[in-house]
Write a structure and sequence with these properties.
The chain is an all-alpha fold. It contains two helices and no strands.
Length: 56
């Protein structure tokens, strides 16, 4: 069924992405830095929303 296909695709993409990132550490570092930056921005936005909510 569809779940089996999704599992197989997920596993294949995971393996290929892992291989690519191991072979291209510079690109892997760039991606990790962007992920960290995005997480930091989300955290700051959440804190700002909470601060505004408290002031109401």
């Amino acid at each position: 069924g569809n779940t089996e296909v999704m599992g197989a695709v997920d596993q294949l993409v995971s393996e290929l992405l892992t291989y690519y990132l191991e072979e291209h550490p510079k690109e892997a570092r760039t991606i990790v830095n962007k992920v960290i930056l995005a997480a930091t921005a989300r955290h700051a936005a959440r804190k700002a929303r909470e601060l505004v909510q408290r002031k109401k």
